[in-house]
Amino acid sequence: MTGIDVGVTVAARTVLPTRHGRFDVLAVQVDDEPAYVLLGMGLQEATDEPLPVRLHSECLTGDALGSHRCDCGDQLDAAFAWIAAHGRGAVLYLRGHEGRGIGLVDKLRAYGLQDAGADTVDANLRLGRQPDERDYRGAARVLAGLDIRRIRLLSSNPAKEEALREAGIEVVERRGLLVPERPENRAYLQTKRARMGHDPAAPAAGDADPFYDPARRPVVTFAQMGQSIDGFVATRAGEGLGLTSPEDHLHLHRLRSLADAVVVGASTIVSDDPRLTVRLVPGANPVRVVLDPRARVPRHAGVFTDGAAPTLWIVGPQAPVQEPPERAELVRLPLAQGRFEPAAVVAALRERGLTRVLVEGGGTTVSAFWGAGALDHLYLTISPVFLGDGVRGVRVEPCDRLDAAPRPPVVSRPLGSDTCHSFTLCPDPAASVGPQPGEPVGPVTGG
Length: 447
Prior knowledge:
Elements: E1 8-18, E2 21-30, E3 36-41, E4 51-57, H1 60-64, H2 72-86, E5 89-94, H3 104-115, H4 120-126, H5 137-145, E6 150-154, H6 158-166, E7 170-175, H7 186-196, H8 213-216, E8 220-228, E9 232-234, H9 246-257, E10 261-265, H10 266-272, E11 287-291, H11 302-305, E12 311-315, E13 329-332, H12 342-351, E14 356-361, H13 363-371, E15 377-383, E16 391-392, E17 410-415, E18 418-424
Parallel strand pairs: 4-5, 4-6, 6-7, 8-14, 8-15, 10-11, 10-14, 11-12, 12-13
Antiparallel strand pairs: 1-2, 2-3, 3-5, 9-16, 15-18, 17-18
Helix pairs in contact: 3-4
């Protein structure tokens, strides 16, 4: 790529390794404006296909400080993930666009007005500013100066598309990124759709989607697992966060929102310290259930300290626990060869009125529930990546003959770059709720 516009210069080039992969980075100067930053993959690829591009307006609070008052940080992360999954595309980071162009100080002042009841449009107007003061002509000059003249725009904002078209950039397609609402930004996003023409929201927690019907049953134990195409949930070093797509992450939150309780083993808590809450979709947080036969989960784990949802800490009869964590209920269950029986876990939860149970991890725990006949349904997401070795995902008992291999009914759908397979292991959970405690079934280690 070479500059064409004499006012556009590439001031610096380098690479940036990120959790989504390695991006080429260009600092681009347009006259005396703040430098634009373009991060891309596959930019040198010889193709007539339009380049997927996201114009991302600078947002210190959302991008860097993790604010949930807007969806900017989520959109930026989703853009990087989408580009990495497709191997080609760019994010053009637009400095000087803070607060839709009104600057950081006025943006924070507008937040104060919103706290008092104004929406995001009226707050700007009360400050004597426009609802949106961004100018995309510089961004169009950057794209044209880099010979990027045909794009697929990754945005829910039609104003960006219109501005680029007026500036001579051919927008072949515009598509929004699948970023759900949070409770903290729902009103803000609704205002942008109602008063600023943004695209409709992402679907809520399953809505009428039949893909989620198994998880809606009143009495059901279902599982979700994401793993590599060769069957691992993490590398040998234990790195597993970000293995599957943002769309799969949203899918997981939908399943949590449909569950009364979410079950994980101790190894999952120790390695990932997950929150196990519903943050990306509307819904109540499920009760968090930690299977920890030897009581090895540290007291500072988030499920014990954040107070976001009730937590049941299930330990063995002899586990060395003097006092349970303040924010957790201690439950002791018998062990069989040092492990919990899945049926005993399910029975203990149903005694507490927790009848829709999501078994989320890890691979050992999900496999044990399936092997014990205590799992009615399995959502298994496959990421198109090869790890070679690592932490094993879902496993079943080996068989010598293909006709003896389990082939449960399955419905599959894409989730971003991944594919989720929805397996029905028990057609009628109400009629078959798995083995009863004491029956000789596979144990759960809490791994």
